[in-house]
Queue: 3 jobs
Job 1
Amino acid sequence: MDHLDRILLSGIYNVRKGKTQLHKWAERLVVLCGTCLIVSSVKDCQTGKMHILPLVGGKVEEVKRRQHSLAFSSAGAQAQTYHVSFETLAECQRWQRQASKVVSQRISTVDLSCYSLEEVPEHLFYSQDITYLNLRHNFMQLERPGGLDTLYRFSQLKGLNLSHNKLGLFPVLLCEISTLTELNLSCNGFHDLPSQIGNLLNLQTLCVDGNFLTTLPEELGNLQQLSSLGISFNNFSHIPEVYEKLTMLDKVVMAGNHLEVLNLGVLNRMSHIKHVDLRMNHLKTVVTENLEGNKYITHMDLRDNQLADLDLNSLCSLEQLHCERNQLRELTLSGFSLRNLYASSNRLTAVNVYPVPSQLTSLELSRNLLECVPDWACEAKKMEILDVSCNLLTEVPMRILSSLSLRKLMLGHNQVQSLPALVDHIPLEVLDIQHNLLTRLPDTLFSKALNLRYLNASANSLESLPSAGAGEESLSALQLLYLTNNLLTDQCVPVLVGHPHLRILHLANNQLQTFPASKLNKLEQLEELNLSGNKLKTIPTTIANCRRLHTLVAHSNNISIFPEILQLPQIQFVDLSCNDLTEILIPEALPATLQDLDLTGNTNLILEHKTLDTFSHITTLKIDQKPLPTTDSTVTSTFWSHGLAEMAGQRNKLCVSALAVDNFAEGVGAVYGMFDGDRNEELPRLLQCTMADVLLEEVQQSTNDTVFMANTFLVSHRKLGMAGQKLGSSALLCYIRPDTADPTSSFSLTVANVGTCQAVLCRGGKPVPLSKVFSLEQDLEEAQRVKDQKAIITEDNKVNGVTCCTRMLGCTYLYPWILPKPHISATPLTIQDELLILGNKALWEHLSYTEAVNAVRHVQDPLAAAKKLCTLAQSYGCQDNVGAMVVYLNIGEEGCTCEMNGLTLPGPVGFASTTIIKDPPKPTTPSSSSGIASEFGSEMSTSEVSSEVGSTASDEHNTVGLDAGLLPRPERRCSLHPTPTSGVFQRQPSCATFSSNQSDNGLDSDDDQPVEGVITNGSKVEVEVDIHCCRGRDLENSPTLTENSPTPCPEEHARGSFFGIRRQNSVNSGIFLPVSKDKMELQKSPSTSCLYGKKLSNGSIVPLEDSLNLIEVATEAPKKKTGYFAAPTQLEPEDQFVVPRDLEEEVKEQMKQHQEGRPEPEPSEEDRTELPEEFDTAL
């Protein structure tokens, strides 16, 4: 009761049910909520039975026989009455006034959509004032007490929505509701409409989209008041003839049907039709029966068809034409009334319009094969917008650039080498000339185009900029200037002063070495400044005068001094990564607006604890972690390294997340992922934290890449739970692992994706796409599948107006239109594979595969490469979230890490090695240094979110002791040269965390005596080892022991059996601690099992005397080996092998004894008869 909304009054009163006095008075909780009176037990008001009395249309009367009492009655023949006795007159009057208002209400609109109803609630039939009833997305039945066959009881009903109810059959009795003016029956699986529909003479709007209709009944022509008829996404193969009788209709809306031929003669007989929508049909030809023109059609939409040539010259009144995404080579139109023409994404080489369209205001011809701007376009006197980007233009006509009406000109992605000089003033406001071959801009551009607000000249070969004006006072109105990826030098900076209204300035990837302080001082209106990818050593101190600056991006320079930007009142985003910063001077108080500070890639930067405390309030702080000691398990990561960049753009939140695990599945693989939630940030975060764990579990269940990748996506989709009901996310997952199928390849790359995130492999300098884009515009097969399943695709090409993707994780309420089934591809990696690029939709919309690969091929740092891609996308016009990950590959013999190739490994007991490996690999889990920290920032690390529990240890096998001797360490091999099959069994590294306050038998460990030389770790002791079963001699040549292996011969018994432990993720990897057979005779009960060695808090494992019981058995660890969070634990910074000083002599003595060779104990007679056991025990 406490959670009810719209509670008006409530209290505990004496209540009697019924009009007669047969019932007794009882104390009850009475609530006036919304339009109902709720009566329930006082004691069990939360869980007990509630009596709900609808008051609309009912009565509230005073009870004369009892003082301060009211009688509440519902409406209808079977009305119920409750008498309520109040304590005071004032209270009684307050309830009477409030209840009288409820009773007098008249409900005209009832929305019962998405309630899983099978019938209409009975009490609604007593309200005769309902005029609109919404029953969308239910399971309404026909023959039930409140079913659809009883809706005729609503005598005043005018609007009825029954869409998405899967009715299958048309409810014929609906045709008896003569008052209906609006009827929506979309997506119900109808194959035909009954002839009785002609009885709805008052019907004005009829929507039957998303069914299986092929014809319309002739009786539909009786509906002379019908002004809107929707039959989109059905199975019509021609325009129904009944349209000729429906003279009130002015639109033919038949998108998503099966029309292959458009007969203009049929439309000529329909003089009342002005708009024709035939999107997403199968149109291939347009037929004209005679030369008679059509003077009535003004709007035509033919998008997403299969037209090769289109001649609509007979439509002399045509004002607007949409014909995008066809296969048009030639287009012919009449220009008498043409106002808007949209013909992008075709193969047009010629566009013929006659006469010259004097009313044309917008012309869009982008993504075609035009070599020149049509002559008639140059003569259009009222054209305001011209988009001819992504064509084959080599020049721009003078008449276009000097047009007195043109306000927006898009010329990007062409082959223009120069622009004509301007003589007269022009009203141009937006000019986009990016991705051309320009070496200079017209000298009079800024002086003649005084209204120019936006200029994008990125990706050209500009070496200088024209002056803003002749005099000191500049009249320039330029606000947004993008000059990224040119050849500009310091000489262009003084010219910028002539644009005092600049708000956004992008000068990334040029050749700037300095930015004069006096020039920056004059750009007081600057809000966003991007200087990344240059050779700057400092940012001028005068940047402090740019009081409106909120974004500074200056990564990939040589900046050594932190700029004075922390005093700016509106600063929000600062990116100074990949520079030479050494220290930061922090003011006393940081601006409260600062949200994102990126300092990664500054190898010489050292931040003190005081500085980090000052930055604690920042939402996202990205800094480099301290380099971890190189361990044996991370040697294989020298084959790859990654860098990540994520930028929010002009959005106030980042809806892109990434996953990066350089050492995955025992350190012999890697996992990288990209997740884009479009408008939501919840799902990408969930997938970032959990998808690698799901993959790890699935990899252990199957070795088939198609199987475990598909299962990973399906399980992740299911685990989204309620968050994935209405939210969705694109997902891309790349898994690198040793290739067991192809002997010529060392590693294979498996890529799976749904949505619009893509992965591109650079092989020999050429891009190789590995993923598939699941969108309605780019995948015709998927678009046809969605159409066949009768989804409604809106004009902006979105399924039900929600998303353009056809496959996603989440959005389960859009099933079966939206599926989580991924596209999967497997590629063997070769020595020619240089890098892998992962990006979201926004990145690939603004960068081609070739440009992205060429942009980062020669960048040494993968982090700088990823930053560069995001910067390029933003400078090319991206205003949305953009994310890029670059993975550098070093697959070849030069990347070998075997000992035989010269790599020196640590000594037997972990003493320091003289070999230094440069550029140590990044941590196995997403770290802030790689940008994965994203917005976890100062709150918590990603490792705490993704695998806080960790993989649990297993104690299913018998635990045994350890001998103090050491076995010869086998030769270290890399994944390129794997070790031949031996008797060593390896399992996934696991981590068991135990409370240090409890011993293995559950008693208080405070009774144990502290051991000298052993450092405690606070409240937890973490043990992480791998157990290997092997024999003491000839490890590499001995066969693997299994439970079903035959009884060994006496010679094998004479050698003795050994039990080895190898420490993963530590510098003492490869060291085996033997256990003689007699140690296995210990009792197997958990309370008496013990091991002879203690893992210190710093990660070391020291073999000790048998009498010292320093490693406690993990008997309380969960027995489940894998699970939802069964990911490899990350290597802690202090996790390195350290031998206490007081034990050094003992360890050296043990090594000396081992080298001299000790006699092996003779196995007992009992040992000879036992089968060898396989142990798999995690400590």
Note: The two ends are 52 Å apart (CA to CA).
Job 2
Amino acid sequence: MGDMANSSIEFYPKPQQQREAPHAGGFGCTLAELRSLMELRGAEALQKVQEAYGDVGGLCRRLKTSPTEGLADNATDLEKRRQIYGQNFIPPKQPKSFLQLVWEALQDVTLIILEVAAIVSLGLSFYAPPGEESDACGNVAAGAEDEGEAEAGWIEGAAILLSVICVVLVTAFNDWSKEKQFRGLQSRIEQEQKFTVIRNGQLLQVPVAALVVGDIAQVKYGDLLPADGVLIQGNDLKIDESSLTGESDHVRKSVDKDPMLLSGTHVMEGSGRMVVTAVGVNSQTGIIFTLLGAGGEEEEKKDKKAKKQDGAVAMEMQPLKSAEGGEMEEREKKKANVPKKEKSVLQGKLTKLAVQIGKAGLVMSAITVIILVLYFVIETFVIDGRVWLAECTPVYVQYFVKFFIIGVTVLVVAVPEGLPLAVTISLAYSVKKMMKDNNLVRHLDACETMGNATAICSDKTGTLTTNRMTVVQSYLGDTHYKEVPAPSALNPKILDLLVHAISINSAYTTKILPPEKEGALPRQVGNKTECALLGFVLDLKRDFQPVREQIPEDKLYKVYTFNSVRKSMSTVIRVADGGFRLFSKGASEILLKKCSNILNSDGELRSFRPRDRDEMVKKIIEPMACDGLRTICIAYRDFSTGQEPDWDNENEVVADLTCITVVGIEDPVRPEVPEAIRKCQRAGITVRMVTGDNINTARAIAAKCGIIQPGEDFLCLEGKEFNRRIRNEKGEIEQERLDKVWPKLRVLARSSPTDKHTLVKGIIDSMTGEQRQVVAVTGDGTNDGPALKKADVGFAMGIAGTDVAKEASDIILTDDNFTSIVKAVMWGRNVYDSISKFLQFQLTVNVVAVIVAFTGACITQDSPLKAVQMLWVNLIMDTFASLALATEPPTESLLLRKPYGRDKPLISRTMMKNILGHAVYQLTIIFTLLFVGELFFDIDSGRNAPLHSPPSEHYTIIFNTFVMMQLFNEINARKIHGERNVFDGIFSNPIFCTIVLGTFGIQIIIVQFGGKPFSCSPLSTEQWLWCLFVGFGELVWGQVIATIPTSQLKCLKEAGHGPGKDEMTDDELAEGEEEIDHAERELRRGQILWFRGLNRIQTQIRVVKAFRSSLYEGLEKPDSKASVHNFMTTPEFLINDYTHNIPLIDDTDVDENEERLRAPPPPSPNKNNNAIDSGIYLATTASKSATSSRPGSPLHSVETSL
């Protein structure tokens, strides 16, 4: 395995290694040494550290840093370290260049058809048929006598090309700016990520990118480690290394067993300090990313090669293509082109609609072309009885090309290519503006999904409350104090015990600092509950700092850190006489069960029986909880000198305690929350509170917030009761049972992370009620990860949230405030409405333009709207309108309607009425102008003009009127729910005004000076006024339409439904486990490369072993076998990861675990790779049909040959 460890260094450019070998800049370790050290794990790593450096202290000395004081904050020293050991920065993948984006925009089918048409048209225009036989070809060439006119034939083709170029540039520019915005957003997220290090003995928060090798970093529960390091001191530290190893069990880290901490892994429990040994591209995550860079380019070549090689190898190559290699092959083939995350509600509806419109357009354009060609052929060869002469062929072909171009224009107008543009612009605009409303959007579509939200499951602490906790009541020495007692009123012995219990048994990173400004409140740093307790110590006129200085963190004998299962935290210290003392604090009802004594008013012990406990719960705890206070019990226990307990047996250690006090901590409701919740309820969104708190506290807070109103029919449940109601006799969750509970459930108290996930999943999967639910969830803790991932929209707290929660979320609330969620709902609905507005406008134009082009072509053999004019109309209605209508600011009125839900169509009846109503008006006007316009304006008729004839005023008037009607209709389109005042709030959107006026200005230029390329001839003032008058008629007509009640029009169909229930394919339903965004997908690929090598070695060793012992045991039974594919079956959070270490309320998961661990892993020959030792077997349940168990997979073939 040693060679494996070094092999990854070979990926690196050689010069770097040669450069560092001679000088390590005065430091005692080279980069290569540290890198090879970080490749090791567990005992091997310890051995290496001892051989090379003596101990971790020796390593620190070599790196010229102090384990307690950290680095001197000296700029030159830090810079030198960066030069030698690299920066903590992984260069991002190259963004697509503008040219690549242009190339991608050119792939659009309609544009390709147009380009072909334009090029053919250009080519033919340069080919002039010999002039003498023009008579023989009929009146085809008539009107082209004027030389100048004949030469202008190329203009049409050139103009089409020009407009294609315009469309492509606009699209590419939009994509480019979107990409740029997104990168800006990402880098903002990255810059905001800070990490705690010790420099000059001071705790500092530095940006992650500023970490250097040799820094001493503080790690604590919930951190995402930003660099590799070696543990110097740790308390009960457990790390989730699944992102690197695929191993879902949490790995225990300690200085004497496994001190290696790796970047990209999550701290799930405990705390500690580490010395940073590798940063950036040299850290474990960095190495994987670098492999990715190497892997990305090689990937295509490999794919090609793989096809030629035999099946076994090809099979191993497979995972690179799929996003995570966890699927079975068949599903991979099916899903090769299906994006990973299930399309958002809106995207699903839009895709469907666009396809329907596209098909209709295609049919129309085909019919147009066929009719034109037949008409021409019949008229020329049948009626006029001409013969097809060879020399006339080019002339006829020119005609056919003209027909083809007309057909294509119909298609171009019919296909709403502005839709994706509108969605992108609208989302990008909203995301930018949402930043101002304290919503940092990580996934674009989350913003629109939020508008459809029907339920919000919110945390209590910090979201609904201020998260500024204070102790307001306490029960000390047999007395219940309703406010903080005077220190003199307390027994000094009790007071002393209390101060020690609070100061020592809390994270040393939690502190209360003096206020920044005069008169402000003291600053609370760290865990807020602990801050409340420390504040209580200060209120009792004592100080916690001296106690901590007397017993520094490294003197703590053992720490059981807080986690969601224990709901308590305990710390053991050595006392002077050689015995031990344990301090414990935690949720009162849990800790009081472990107490057998309590301190009375003299500070003496008196026994505390279950009967006393019940009385205390009734008299003290419940009244506190009903005031909305969170109750915390503080207790201690002494161990005499002789009896050192087995510290790993936690249940025996933390038992037989003596209760010191029970305190009631108040976390006041944020003043703005009740109003925000009222808005949600008015908007048809149900708010549910999911909290770990006691049920009485939760109920009191819920009533203060307005989540529950007196007299309503609602449920408040505890986690235990909730589980009892939704599980059957076997302990499995049943959807029918859940469906009986969730509609009335408003408060879920004492809930575990699993309960939260179960509730969210249950609501999302529920099919009861008239529409499916769309659920938003807020979370801040590491344990909220699964629920945040499962929810349609996950909100993480920006201030209190752990990195793990932020990683799993879609939107980060930068101010942790519930009102920001309401803002997100408003923006989401606004996005949805903007797109509906755009559709209403776009489809009107589409219907009219297609019908005009079609009928015009069939009756007059020439479309009244020329190709170039159509493209201009397309530009107005697609690009500009999407800009104008997609940037409408949201208004409070959006919160007065119910959410649309997953199944509501995009185009409502009202919108359908508007679209058809306006289409009727526009068609009437245009056909009137087309057939009797020349009489009305007293001008030459433009109908039946020969090829290449100069543009007529007649057709120019039609074109101009058409555009004017669109401009005025754009104002109508601003309202989609049948409102009368279409000008409402028009000036609050400057973009809209600019675009309408700008379009008008350009239209004047096109008509007056466009000439031949635009097929326009200048118009007089009177004609202009008529055009404007007709256009203005649109607004009047809009009022007429608004008068017709929609309910009378039963015949109108709605369009653009979401995918129906029956159409939800198995793929989509199965995608729950694989919602993986791009960054993760990239990381996954690297992991596969990484594991593939390890896996091959593993297989070889096993085969050798199997031969050597000639027994079958070397390979397990086929069903528990896992292949390289299974490495990837643990997405960031599969809820199964939790089942090992969260004892559920009823221990139903035991059998599942046994099942999973059925096959005992064979003793692995390499200690270096825990992933393969045990990770693989755990992974099998996630995809039961692991690929390898199918005959024909490489491992299976080895097994059969044995």
Note: DSSP finds 43 helices and 26 strands in the chain.
Job 3
Amino acid sequence: DSSASASQEAGTTGFGVTAHCSFFLTPSQRLERCMSIVTSMTAGVSEREANDALNAYVCKGLPQHEEICLGLFTLILTEPAQAQKCYRDLALVSRDGMNIVLNKINQILMEKYLKLQDTCRTQLVWLVRELVKSGVLGADGVCMTFMKQIAGGDVTAKNIWLAEGVLDILTEQREWVLKSSILIAMAVYTYLRLIVDHHGTAQLQALRQKEVDFCISLLRERFMECLMIGRDLVRLLQNVARIPEFELLWKDIIHNPQALSPQFTGILQLLQSRTSRKFLACRLTPDMETKLLFMTSRVRFGQQKRYQDWFQRQYLSTPDSQSLRCDLIRYICGVVHPSNEVLSSDILPRWAIIGWLLTTCTSNVAASNAKLALFYDWLFFSPDKDSIMNIEPAILVMHHSMKPHPAITATLLDFMCRIIPNFYPPLEGHVRQGVFSSLNHIVEKRVLAHLAPLFDNPKLDKELRAMLREKFPEFCSSPSPPVEVKIEEPVSMEMDNHMSDKDESCYDNAEAAFSDDEEDLNSKGKKREFRFHPIKETVVEEPVDITPYLDQLDESLRDKVLQLQKGSDTEAQCEVMQEIVDQVLEEDFDSEQLSVLASCLQELFKAHFRGEVLPEEITEESLEESVGKPLYLIFRNLCQMQEDNSSFSLLLDLLSELYQKQPKIGYHLLYYLRASKAAAGKMNLYESFAQATQLGDLHTCLMMDMKACQEDDVRLLCHLTPSIYTEFPDETLRSGELLNMIVAVIDSAQLQELVCHVMMGNLVMFRKDSVLNILIQSLDWETFEQYCAWQLFLAHNIPLETIIPILQHLKYKEHPEALSCLLLQLRREKPSEEMVKMVLSRPCHPDDQFTTSILRHWCMKHDELLAEHIKSLLIKNNSLPRKRQSLRSSSSKLAQLTLEQILEHLDNLRLNLTNTKQNFFSQTPILQALQHVQASCDEAHKMKFSDLFSLAEEYEDSSTKPPKSRRKAALSSPRSRKNATQPPNAEEDTGFRWSRHQQLPRLEEEDTKPKPTKRKRKGSSAVGSDSD
């Protein structure tokens, strides 16, 4: 009792003080602190004493209650063995119906789920299952947030595990699910969408069936709850219509709607109901949603490429991910409705993102579904119920694609015409009226002033124009010739004020992805995307106009900004900039002015972001001089502050606003932290900056900033590389993303410079736990990029055995770069058994000389060691049953070592050494191993490798008699045992028997012409007779 009271007292005094400092702790630090509080109270005492201590602490107040709840929650996530006990304690001490825990789960799911370790993810699912079992109020909201984390178009193991885990909870607790109408609808919408992705393997088929059963049961029993989904329920049901259970459901929907619900009148009722935003949003993960909202609210038109490239790599790079495009398009049309202020600005418009999604689609089925998703709200559009914002993107994609991508416009117009009779013939009249209402509303709202320039454009083929005139004669008459018509669109809806010279790169992807003609190469082989540079250059010569922003600033700040604009030299501008920073840090500063101030600074200091940042000659003086720019004063002030200071957060907010308006500020900050003496040892400030940006993620922010640096200044990229790899190893060394950026643009001199950095210990670009995966990734890179990657790897002191398994991925026709680099490195190594095993695992092919080359070299340098390793491998593989070997080699995608492979490679080596003085095959270990194999192998192998085995026989023939007698025993015993236990040919593969029939005639020539015969026989599997 005394120890328990002491620990309570310690908790009161010690943690009472730190509670005041909790404001400055990160969320993870706070959870760790809460966990330590709980652990200090419960360690070493009985369960009853622990409960008493926890309850006593909770009763002190709300902060203490929150600490205990969060501490127990953290223990549940991190200590699976204690989870059951901690959940019981949590249920006992919680005074708010678990509200604190539910809020924390939602926060983690929305912000941190991707960063959770597997154990924590597993425990989080377990905890939600327990909350649902207990019927905790609000658990349905957590389940819906969990479903949002299940990514569409993703069949990776972790995503499938999550989909199945949540489905199991909903299936097990079915009665609880039926109590929440919104949960029923959300679960049906989610799993109807996921069914499309789950096909192929047995595991996915099993999951798919569970999803089908789950959705069908809810649709049939609770159809009116599902009706709240609206018209997108029909779209999802169309995608699964061929599954037998849904085929029967469709028959009821069309022919017997009353069977589903007395209130359900038919499919038209569903199609005329607009789908709520919450359903469209639920099929994007929080990370996808954040990135899309960032692009549509913060990214300037013309600067979107790096964001689109990142999104493409992250979410749209696999064949399975094509189905995600429909979710993205429906989300953009139905959820992302920008304000008039954004619409009239130079922010990336919605139609440009949709155009990018359409032009990068690689599947015909996905393309058709994407077009349907784009036009879906048109089909039953009603101006009274539906929003113009839902139909605006489709018409603008067609309008803006006419010049740069007429094929896109044509295919969309064709789809619009053909969908009318084909969507659902009995409702053709309703669909025609819906499309007509959409077009009429577009003209009324002046999204486009006239449709004739679009519908009757000379760039369209005659048949399409005729079909458009037939379907929509009302919109095809033009007041003047189509080419001359000026589209008078309101600024709020159109981007023409930004588009006059930029139509040709409106999606900023198709040329880069698919057109070799539009890619320029400079003298160093660097790919440069010039289409954006004219955009920047056109505004360079214009005088800076910050008048619109000045009116929104306080008078004192306005005066300082004007002084900054008039400043004649850098020193004067720096003084004014410091005054501005000081004013921002004053207590009464209105933080809402940060965005306006950032706009002013971005306009005034555009020159900062042009040209090269790094001095031509790098010295301490030139580096210090290069970081003396006025804008860098914000960085300097940041470096001088403590991170728990409120002023620190304010300056980070200012930088975040600047970053949204000028993304290059990110790599300029990295340069400052690398080059300035005032920033020595402060590189970690960049992490705080990354977390303060809209991206909110260090890895994403770092990769995007390095990509921007790569596009602008390769010298600076190389200069930053050592410090970036050193300061952020977890972000740079775990994948090949940054390495690929670097090797894609460097020249041979810069490569040599990086190699020197590695060898001097200033740079580490690979580590043992991830180097193999990175080199495997590099197999898809360009030739020079691969050679650079291998040169940088070889500069490190990483044992070659670490990456030798890559041999199993290398094909002689597809990966010559990696094979040649590996071959040259292997020749410097003393062979280990693992190396020899991997080398021998390569499939035998007449044109693939890799294995023979390295074995020959090792024969010359390390003959005894190689002989021992080969003996060991021969004996090990010979002891395995033949059937198991066959299964093993055929079931795995990667090459597996089999006895036949070893013998084939040895036979190739024997042929290669025939005319040399090398006596590798006269060594005792090799001959002993060949004897061992010959004694137990079948006749097919004996015949196929007769020349090889004859070496062992010659060796024995020249030996004394006692060894011969031993040989007879060795040869006779296994054969007799084999024949006693198995019938003839029991161990022979069918392929061997087929080959023997084909090769028998050649065998007769072997005594006279061994070499040619051997070469002819090389391609076959085996030779010999049919009997043992």
Note: The longest strand covers residues 520-521.
